Amino acid sequence: MKQPARILTIAGSDCSGGAGLQADLKAITLLGGYGMSAITAITAQNTCGVYAVEVLSPEMVAAQIDACVGDIGVDAVKIGMLGSAAIAHMVADRLEKLDVPVVFDPVMVATSGGVLADADTIAAFGRLMALATLTTPNLPELAALGGEAAVRLKAKALLVKGGHGDQPVIEDRLIGGDTEQVFTSARIDTRHTHGTGCTLASAIACGLGQGMDLPAAVKRGSDFVHAGLLAAPGFGAGHGPMGIYAGA
């Protein structure tokens, strides 16, 4: 039996299960990968908001990464919420020693509006964008990073997610060097969008770890998220989770 691709998510925990490393591990598993995690922060959140955040030490996050890489090994990495500038720089130090695909989701604000990255942490994102195979900002994140032109100078490849726009057809633009590819999907009128960015980035990382090229991994990831939005179970009073579970 062929071994599954080993995918490491470096991200925060969402106790309500809709986003963060919980969403990452669900996506990785359902797409046939073997998921591992290095927890950067513990959050108390649900569909209505983020109520408490406790960031782990850089040393503890590094120990988790080293434990996974040193024993199980890794075929691709997904980066989500980092929690501090010190963790961001430590993760960059570790990634410089690995030769595997990396997908960086520059998480700054939760779907519910909770702030998940301060100015120093955002400033440290530059190192990660330069190392990552793909950086996946949504439109507000792209603006906070200085705009598309500024990010293109730092990132190897960029997936500009159009979900925060208001057009009836969502356009996600994959930009690498002088080439651009557009992936379109019909907008779904739903409040159940918690964890879309986390799920997409981890799905793409899983595809890259499985040997897919970047456009194919993005296309499968986008289709996976679209199906999850259609299958949302309706949980929560706010921005509910997608239907990322077996049988969806």
Automatic annotation (TrEMBL):
The gene is thiD. PANTHER family: HYDROXYMETHYLPYRIMIDINE_PHOSPHOMETHYLPYRIMIDINE KINASE THI20-RELATED, PHOSPHOMETHYLPYRIMIDINE KINASE. One of its GO terms (biological process) is thiamine diphosphate biosynthetic process. It comes from Novosphingobium umbonatum. This is hydroxymethylpyrimidine kinase. Pathway: Cofactor biosynthesis; thiamine diphosphate biosynthesis. Its EC number is 2.7.1.49. It comes from the Bacteria. Keywords: ATP-binding, Kinase, Nucleotide-binding, Transferase.
